[in-house]
Amino acid sequence: MRVPIRSSRMVPSHLGQSIDNLPYLAFGYHASIFYTRAVRTLGRVLGAAALMAGGVILARETPPPLSSFRKYFWGARTAYEQRNFKKAQRLLQTYRDLGSPSDRLLVQAGCDPKQEVALFSAALKDVRACIAGRSQSLFWTDSERAKLDILLAMRDGNPAELEPYVDCAPVDLTIPPTSCGVHQYPKPPDLERLAAALRKTPDILKQPNWRGFPVDPHDPLRVTWVLYTYSDHWKPCAMEGAPIISLRQDTAGQIRIAGLAASCLEF
To answer: Is the C-alpha dihedral spanning 199, 221, 124, 110 positive or negative?
Structure first.
């Protein structure tokens, strides 16, 4: 007895549709898999591209590796400027123990690291000698007396009389900024050069302007007074409002000359 084959119309509607649409469902299933894989692949590609772009940006923003010159020599110079001379000597000795390496990037920029080291080494040697003879150096205890003595000596008297009052490691107040960051280290005799330059334009010291600053106990520089001028003729290296001389008061209350204009005196 032959059993008649039922057509798809006799199958329940939801099953019939599934069976009739099977090829389409299979195609849709494979298409969805292909689409998912394509999206994932595209995401990986875009992610890799983003990482590469981020790497380029980081490479541009990340500073170059710190060389021994910049780590130890520049560190010694910073300690010197903060009047931490023992630390400066220790870092300089570490730099020398490494063979006094140069800095390729600075050399390519036209800088002279060897010259900088030579200047700094001489300045640090002068500081050690200054500290050894500090008990014999002169100082003021009255800031008003110090300001008057400086003006009289620089304007009308002998600036050499002020040299014993110059503190160890005086600062050059008018050194122009350079791409190499070269430092200058003035000495007490530079006061005579400064006085000679100022006397060419007497109007500068005829209008002195002393500005006082409160002493910060945490500031190793301890600058208390800075001499400026109201004259428009004082423009070393085209720097308007540049300081001329600065005073510092140490923890013992002794006042000495902390800095002076030693650069750009051809104005």
So the answer is: negative
Over pLDDT 70: what percentage of the chain?
75
Q: Within this chain, do residues 154 and 181 fall inside the same structural domain, yes or no?
A: yes
Q: Which domain holds residue 33?
A: 8-61
The verdict on 242 and 168 lying in the same domain is yes
Q: Tell me the percentage of the chain whose pLDDT exceeds 90.
A: 67
Residue 3 lies in a domain: no
Render pLDDT for 154-167 as a digit per residue (tens, 0 to 9): 998 899 999 999 99
Residue given tokens 């980081």 in the structure block: 58
Q: What pTM did the predictor assign?
A: 0.74
Rounded to the nearest 10 degrees, how much is the dihedral formed by the CA atoms of 239, 240, 244, 247?
A: -100
- How far apart CA 95 and CA 68 sit, in angstroms, is 7
Query: Do residue 174 and residue 243 come from a single domain?
Result: yes
Cβ atoms of 258 and 248 within 8 Å: the answer is yes
